[in-house]
């Protein structure tokens, strides 16, 4: 490849990357701009800079959406879901990776089917069952629903990590006197920890942003999640879009900060999950 071709390739690469960065950052920048505007200016021209900075949009959004309570509810629910999914999925994925299962095609079809099946199919039976058991407004019960919904994806991803680990490591640990549980806990989990972190980030994002299940099973005011309280800010006839944009920024900010801090681990985890065994 000549120098001219190399420069052309490099230029095209930077142009494409610049376009992708613009597409990625534009919604966030637009959200920040409109969060600082009066509601009238948001409606008139959402792309313009604010004529005056309205910091009170954030304070009103925090108070009206009761974010002090609802953000904590979302954090607790997300943490419970992450723990349950990572625990059950890692154990299941380890067994599926190490044991020869004759009906593996059936298991694969089941996992893929449950991954793609819409939750609406199960919403009404679940609701009536939860109502009979008195589990409405119970965050732990909702965390178990999230676990059932997100576990198939997590199992499929983590299985690829366990397949990439040489069996000789397990055999050496067993020869040294370790039990199967010790092999899993002390040998396998540290090796596949990037995959578990990747699963935790993805499941955390899903749980934090989930709306349908949360609004169905968590109905009392003291159990609402941040996303549901954000939805309730919008009125039937009029909405304060400056306040709504400020509320959206408050909800998005923790996820953005967490992803920025852990992006290298996340990318490494996704790359490692692409290894086929």
From TrEMBL:
<dbReference type="GO" id="GO:0005886">
    <property type="term" value="C:plasma membrane"/>
</dbReference>
<keyword id="KW-0813">Transport</keyword>
<keyword id="KW-1003">Cell membrane</keyword>
<keyword id="KW-0472">Membrane</keyword>
<feature type="transmembrane region" description="Helical">
    <location>
        <begin position="241"/>
        <end position="262"/>
    </location>
</feature>
<feature type="domain" description="ABC transmembrane type-1">
    <location>
        <begin position="71"/>
        <end position="262"/>
    </location>
</feature>
<dbReference type="GO" id="GO:0055085">
    <property type="term" value="P:transmembrane transport"/>
</dbReference>
<keyword id="KW-0812">Transmembrane</keyword>
<dbReference type="InterPro" id="IPR000515">
    <property type="entry name" value="MetI-like"/>
</dbReference>
<comment type="subunit">
    <text>The complex is composed of two ATP-binding proteins (UgpC), two transmembrane proteins (UgpA and UgpE) and a solute-binding protein (UgpB).</text>
</comment>
<feature type="transmembrane region" description="Helical">
    <location>
        <begin position="109"/>
        <end position="128"/>
    </location>
</feature>
<protein>
    <recommendedName>
        <fullName>sn-glycerol-3-phosphate transport system permease protein UgpE</fullName>
    </recommendedName>
</protein>
<feature type="transmembrane region" description="Helical">
    <location>
        <begin position="75"/>
        <end position="97"/>
    </location>
</feature>
<keyword id="KW-1133">Transmembrane helix</keyword>
<feature type="transmembrane region" description="Helical">
    <location>
        <begin position="183"/>
        <end position="208"/>
    </location>
</feature>
<keyword id="KW-0997">Cell inner membrane</keyword>
<feature type="transmembrane region" description="Helical">
    <location>
        <begin position="140"/>
        <end position="162"/>
    </location>
</feature>
<dbReference type="InterPro" id="IPR035906">
    <property type="entry name" value="MetI-like_sf"/>
</dbReference>
<feature type="transmembrane region" description="Helical">
    <location>
        <begin position="12"/>
        <end position="36"/>
    </location>
</feature>
<comment type="similarity">
    <text>Belongs to the binding-protein-dependent transport system permease family.</text>
</comment>
<dbReference type="Pfam" id="PF00528">
    <property type="entry name" value="BPD_transp_1"/>
</dbReference>
<comment type="function">
    <text>Part of the ABC transporter complex UgpBAEC involved in sn-glycerol-3-phosphate (G3P) import. Probably responsible for the translocation of the substrate across the membrane.</text>
</comment>
């Amino acid at each position: 490849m000549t120098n001219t071709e190399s420069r052309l390739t490099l230029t095209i690469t930077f142009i494409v990357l610049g376009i992708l960065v613009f597409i990625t950052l534009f919604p966030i920048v637009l959200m920040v701009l409109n969060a600082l505007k009066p509601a009238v200016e948001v409606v008139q021209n959402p792309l313009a800079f604010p004529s005056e900075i309205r910091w009170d949009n954030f304070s009103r959004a925090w108070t009206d959406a009761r974010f002090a309570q609802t953000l904590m509810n979302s954090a607790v629910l997300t943490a419970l879901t992450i723990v349950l999914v990572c625990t059950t999925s890692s154990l299941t994925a380890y067994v599926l990776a190490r044991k020869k299962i004759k009906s593996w095609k059936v298991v694969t079809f089941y996992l893929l089917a449950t991954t793609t099946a819409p939750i609406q199919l199960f919403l009404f039976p679940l609701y009536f069952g939860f109502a009979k058991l008195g589990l409405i407004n119970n965050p732990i019960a909702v965390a178990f629903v999230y676990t059932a919904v997100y576990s198939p994806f997590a199992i499929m991803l983590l299985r690829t990590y366990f397949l990439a680990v040489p069996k000789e490591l397990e055999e050496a640990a067993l020869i040294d006197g370790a039990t199967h549980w010790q092999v899993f806990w002390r040998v396998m989990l540290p090796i596949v920890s990037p995959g578990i972190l990747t699963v935790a980030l993805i499941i955390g994002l899903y749980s934090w942003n989930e709306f349908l299940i949360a609004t169905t099973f968590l109905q009392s005011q003291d159990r609402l999640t941040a996303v549901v309280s954000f939805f309730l800010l919008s009125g039937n006839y009029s909405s304060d879009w400056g306040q709504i944009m400020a509320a959206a920024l408050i909800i998005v900010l923790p996820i953005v900060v967490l992803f920025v801090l852990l992006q290298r681990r996340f990318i490494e985890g996704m790359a490692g999950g692409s290894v086929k065994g």
